[in-house]
Description:
This protein is mostly beta strands. Helices cover about 5% and strands about 35% of the residues. The protein contains four helices and 32 strands.
Amino acid sequence: MSRLALRVVAAALGALTLVTGCGDGDSDGGGSDDGRRPDGSRVTIRVPADAPTISDAVSLARPGDLVLVAPGVYRESVRIDTERITLRGESRAGVVIDGQVRRPNGVVVAAPGVAVENLTVRNNTHNGVLVTGSAAAIAGLPGSGGYDTGDEPVTLLKSFLVSHVTATRNGLYGIYAFSARNGVIERSYTSGGADSGIYVGQCRPCRIVVRDNVSELNAVGYEGTNAGGDMYVVGNRLVGNRVGLTTNSDHQEKLLPQRDAVIAGNLIADNQQRKTPEQADGGWGIGIGVDGGSDNRIVRNRVTGNTNAGLVITATADLTADRNRITDNTFTANGVDIGWTFPTATRGQGNCLEGNELRTTVPAGLASTASCPVPATSPTPSGSWRGPAAPAGIPFTEVVAPAAQPEFPGAGTVGATVVPDTPALPAVADIALPAPSLLADGARVRTS
């Protein structure tokens, strides 16, 4: 046995801190207490006091344990294979997992019930945080798009939480939930994602809530691919990317087509930031894009200052965009507020608008000609417009550093977080139109 292994074992036996009667942190509650020791205790493993690296500490942890990390830069990739572990930093900005632009992932969550909280992940060639049930994704086998797993059967990781995480300057995605369900991504910050800041892919039903996040200076702020069924993107600030939000279908992932997501109460603004990584499909100046997605509800979002279009609905070459409902949103100062365009023979049906504040649509007059409700088989009209050309981007490693972000409450004093088997889902009727200042305190990019 190596000296390092002996030291880790000794730390596990002699220096673990027993914590009894711990609370659930900032979680939604729920779950069970079967992660406790027979005497009712949980264990806190401290890094570096009890284990020299985060990976060493995670390897010692048992279900229900908390791995609590002291401030420092940790040059490693952390993989969590044990269920119901909490990985938490004592300081969100001070605990940094740095991939040094040579490791693919900062944190890989490959077990259910895991919480990742209050730390920063940066400089990974693929992902800051990867949550997945896909062995191919864990092994780094997906193709250049980050998600083609070939003939691998779909296995969905069940239950996760990513909270108060800063993910910056990563080569594909900041926070990436792929082939996972029953989870929450909340109160996090992503920037410099060369594909997107937050990505949810290949799940149905997802039962995933993406809420109260700031995603800026990415190619795309949020992307959902083949992700639907209790899929909620609510209350986020998606400002100053190249594209704010997309929900789409893609043959590179399974479980297509995308359908049945709720996009509500988000601020989606000024998505034509030049000092960002280039978007692979050349997207620029778009607030919301629906590409081959169906049965989505887009409700009470504030979509403003996107120089190409506030919201675009289009279709892939063989997957239609049907029955999307766009209701009670406020569109201001966009190149085109709402544009429906189908450059191939594939068309949409049953798409409709109701109660929106808007100025321009393509084709003209959609607020009256496509007013909800419309028959499910009603053909969706199509038009075209001239949008601005996308400028060259910058390397993801050169995106400006994040501003200070809020800390996880009681990070060093509360116990492990109990991740519920199924998250509480938002009541859409209770989600209000956001103010232009939504989550501005944690943002670099201000709305115009």
